[in-house]
Design brief:
Strand content: 15-25%
Number of helices: 9
CATH topology: Lambda Exonuclease, Chain A
Distance between the termini: 26 Å
Radius of gyration: 19 Å
Low-confidence stretches: 259-280
Largest sheet: 6 strands, mixed
Number of strands: 8
Structural class: alpha/beta
Helix content: 25-40%
CATH architecture: Alpha-Beta Complex
CATH class: Alpha Beta
Order of helices and strands: EHHEHHHEEEHHEEHEH
Number of domains: 1
Shape: globular
Mean pLDDT: 87
Length: 280
């Protein structure tokens, strides 16, 4: 493949679950955000200040969990839980962590980045909140601070679930004594800070891995082969209410209300994962 695919995307671009989800939601959004890199200063959802506060609190929780997993005493980390919401999540986390007995695992690696090559010449990256390995079995954990518990079937269809398990199967040998993890020995768990007793579990299989890896490679080839300017807008115009490019695409001016949002993940679309291609 040349350095300039038809789409205009650089061959050095590293795909992620966030960029592939953007394409699944709206190919034009993917083009604007990840190829044209257009910064469009629109509000995603109302009330904007509350959504931004919740996003920042979620990032703070991820940092607390990371520090605790790195061995900083819980008493010291807990002092940073400086809001009622963050303190509530922190207490739920402590109970969850005790039950998981992370200290007994051979590998406990928070905020882990893995990257695997794709057949189209691109790379696929995944940033795990936590990877735990016990006796050849690997568990990917992802912390969710959404206000609603995402339905499990919706999570199953998300790019994050497909990408994370596939990347670990493809590129995780370093954490398994040099041998690739068998897909059957991989599981992904979403843990919800506001619903700590109701995690979502996703085991894996060789058949699922084969389907996922073929799909991901084909999806990237399709993106690269799409001529610039021919990425279509989503047919679901309701989704445009929560897209920062809505007015740029002539699909409305005002942001939709967060309370009326009907998404599989109630967190803002633009999160830390969106910048992992270049910054993490």
């Amino acid at each position: 493949m040349s350095d300039k695919p038809a789409s205009g995307i650089s061959i050095s671009f590293a795909f992620s679950q966030a960029s592939l989800q953007a394409y699944a939601d709206c190919p034009r959004r993917f083009e604007l955000r990840h190829i044209e890199r257009l910064n469009y200063p629109a509000v995603e959802a109302e009330p904007a200040l509350e959504n931004e506060r919740h996003r920042q609190t979620g990032e703070a929780f991820h940092l607390l969990a990371q520090q605790h997993l790195l061995g900083i005493p819980a008493e010291q980390v807990g002092r940073l839980a400086n809001s009622p919401e963050l303190a509530h999540w922190w207490q739920a986390w402590l109970m969850f962590a005790v039950g998981q007995d992370f200290a007994s695992a051979q590998v406990v690696s928070p905020e882990l980045m893995l990257s695997a090559p794709l057949t189209a010449g691109f790379r696929l990256t995944a940033k795990f909140d936590l990877l735990v390995v016990r006796a050849g079995r690997a568990t990917i954990f992802d912390w969710k601070t959404s206000k609603r518990r995402t339905p499990t079937p919706h999570l199953a269809a998300r790019m994050q679930t497909r990408v994370y398990r596939a990347v670990l199967a493809q590129a995780g040998a370093h954490f398994n004594g040099g041998a690739p993890f068998a897909p059957e020995n991989i599981e992904m768990i979403y843990w919800f800070a506001d619903f700590p007793q109701d995690p979502a579990h996703f085991p894996y299989s060789a058949a699922q891995y084969q389907r996922d890896w073929e799909f991901l490679n084909q999806r990237v080839k399709t993106i690269a082969a799409t001529p610039a300017g021919q990425f279509p807008l989503t047919a679901d115009e309701k989704a445009c209410d929560y897209c920062t490019y809505r007015s740029y695409c002539n699909r409305g001016v005002r942001a939709g209300a967060e309370s009326a949002r009907d998404l599989d993940d109630n967190e803002p679309n633009f999160r830390l994962e969106d910048v992992e291609e270049s910054a993490l």
